[in-house]
Structure formats: structure tokens, C-alpha cells
């Protein structure tokens, strides 16, 4: 059996991913549409579409989205919603057409290759826009935050540093500039409230948690559950959507 690849483990929990992973606020999609001067009927390329957390929102605005998704299980969930999905990595996709918008939602960091920005630019029409965006959760605070942190310190201290809360996404601004112009960043704060069970299911979809041995992951999530139950029974996560926009020259 070949070793599991972290960027593909989401397919193991595709249904759970679709059910509990957060979407994005409407203001994000409105901003991308405005920045790229898009109208209903325009085409877009999505890199790493997953189960369609962003796809469906752009389809609702009338875009015709061509989705690239390497996980067969994730792609199957999205196809069932009526989207057009091609089962491939962006690195392997032969660029044979150009789009007025290329975007990636919670996925660009998984794309490999030193030429990935050049490839994205080549997939755009002249003046076309790229939008790379992520939901970045803030660290949990107060007694709940301390109790959850203690659970990780006990059962999986090595994955705390890789939490999305610690991601330095602003490097995207520098990385875009050799191939794009009008580079800018926009932020969209929002929040979501989770029950204990929903939060545990959310944790179980994170790649760092998927890569833990099953019994170790179970012990970690049990400790997180206890932390939540003893601190009100709910978790409110404050998200900052960080969106990086640019245009092909």
C-alpha cells in the first residue's frame, strides 16, 4: 500500500467535510466578482474545489466553473451537486484554455511546483484575475482556549504549530508579484458557532488530525470534547477570510 499523502486525505471524510467545513461570507464572493469584472455566464477555473464550499457560491452568481479536484471522493460529492469536475491535480492539468478568473479556496497551499504562479497566469485571459483565499480561524481564547490547548499539549503537541491560526498567508502577496499586477489583500471577518459534536467532526476533517494514528486521534478528540463540555458546551470560532487578488498583466 502506498503511503497516504496529506493533501489527499480529505477524501477519507468527504461527507463530513461537506457537512461541517465552513463556507465563506457573501462579501467575499461579491468582492471577487467586482475585482474581476465578472458577469453571469463568465467562466472560472477552480483549483482544488473539494466538495464545493466556494464552487456553489460562484455558480449561484451565474459563473460557469470548471473544477479541478484530485480526490475522487471529494469530487463525487461535488458532482452530485451538478458541478463539472475534472479529477486531476492542477500541476498535472494541461492548460489548453484561458479563463477570466482562476481561484483557489483553502487549497492553494497544497499546489506544488515552483512554476505554480506562472501556470495560474497562463490559465488566465489577458487582464484576468486570480483570487486565492483561506478561512483563517483565530485561536480560541479564555478558559476554553486554555483547556483545548492543554488537550493538544498532552496528546498531539507537534500539530499545534501547524494550525491554520498560525499560518502566515501574507507571503502570497510577494509570491504573486512576479507574474501579476494590481496585487492586493482583502479581509472578511465572520464567525460560526459549533456544538461539541460538530466541532469534533470539524477537527476530524483537518489534515493534521487525519494523519495521526487512529487511536491517538481518538484520545485527542476525547480530550477536546471534555474541554468543551466543561466550558459551556459550544465553540464559537472567529474566522478571518484572507483573500489575495491580482490581475494578469
CATH superfamily: Vaccinia Virus protein VP39
Overall mean pLDDT = 96
Q: Which CATH C-level class is it? A: Alpha Beta
Low-confidence stretches: none
Q: By helix and strand content, what is the structural category?
A: alpha/beta
The CATH topology annotation reads as Rossmann fold
How much strand? 25-35%
In N-to-C order, the SSE pattern is HHEHEHEEHEHHEHHHE
Task: Indicate the overall shape.
Answer: globular
Strand order of the largest sheet: 3-2-1-4-5-7-6
State the total count of DSSP E strands: 7
Number of domains: 1
What is the CA-atom radius of gyration, in angstroms? 18 Å
Helix amount: 25-40%
| Largest sheet data | 7 strands, mixed
The CATH architecture designation is 3-Layer(aba) Sandwich
Number of continuous helical runs = 10
End-to-end CA span: 45 Å
Descriptive report:
This protein is an alpha/beta fold. The chain has a single domain, classed as Vaccinia Virus protein VP39 (Rossmann fold). The chain has ten helices and seven strands. Strands 3-2-1-4-5-7-6 form a seven-stranded mixed β-sheet, with helices on both faces. The longest helix has 16 residues. The radius of gyration is 18 Å and the shape is globular.
What structural keywords apply?
249 residues, alpha/beta, Rossmann fold, seven-stranded mixed β-sheet, 10 helices, 7 strands, 35% helix, 26% strand, globular
Write the layout of secondary structure elements.
Layout: H1 14-20, H2 26-35, E1 43-47, H3 55-60, E2 64-68, H4 72-79, E3 84-86, E4 99-105, H5 116-122, E5 124-137, H6 142-155, H7 171-176, E6 180-195, H8 196-203, H9 207-210, H10 214-229, E7 234-248
Parallel strand pairs: 1-2, 1-4, 2-3, 4-5
Antiparallel strand pairs: 5-7, 6-7
Helix pairs in contact: 6-10, 8-10
Amino acid at each position: 500500500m502506498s503511503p497516504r499523502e496529506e493533501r489527499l486525505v480529505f477524501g477519507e471524510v468527504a461527507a463530513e467535510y461537506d457537512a461541517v467545513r465552513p463556507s465563506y461570507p457573501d462579501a467575499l464572493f461579491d468582492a471577487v466578482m467586482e475585482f474581476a469584472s465578472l458577469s453571469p455566464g463568465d467562466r472560472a477555473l477552480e483549483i482544488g474545489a473539494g466538495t464545493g464550499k466556494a464552487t456553489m457560491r460562484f455558480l449561484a452568481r451565474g459563473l460557469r466553473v470548471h473544477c479541478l479536484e484530485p480526490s475522487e471522493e471529494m469530487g463525487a460529492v461535488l458532482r452530485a451537486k451538478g458541478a463539472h469536475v475534472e479529477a486531476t491535480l492542477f500541476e498535472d492539468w494541461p492548460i489548453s484554455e484561458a479563463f477570466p478568473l482562476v481561484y483557489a479556496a483553502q487549497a492553494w497551499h497544497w499546489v506544488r511546483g515552483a512554476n505554480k504562479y506562472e501556470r495560474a497566469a497562463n490559465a488566465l485571459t489577458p487582464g484576468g484575475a486570480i483570487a486565492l483565499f483561506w478561512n483563517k480561524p483565530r485561536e480560541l481564547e479564555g478558559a476554553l482556549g486554555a483547556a483545548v490547548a492543554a488537550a493538544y499539549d498532552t496528546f498531539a503537541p507537534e500539530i499545534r504549530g501547524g494550525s491554520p491560526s498560525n499560518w502566515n498567508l501574507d507571503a502570497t502577496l510577494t509570491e504573486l508579484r512576479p507574474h501579476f499586477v494590481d496585487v492586493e489583500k482583502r479581509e472578511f471577518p465572520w464567525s460560526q458557532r459549533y456544538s461539541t459534536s460538530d466541532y469534533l467532526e470539524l477537527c476530524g476533517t483537518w489534515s493534521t488530525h487525519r494523519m495521526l494514528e487512529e487511536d491517538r486521534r481518538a484520545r485527542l478528540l476525547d480530550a477536546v470534547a471534555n474541554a468543551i463540555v466543561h466550558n459551556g458546551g459550544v465553540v464559537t470560532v472567529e474566522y478571518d477570510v484572507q483573500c489575495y487578488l491580482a490581475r494578469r498583466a
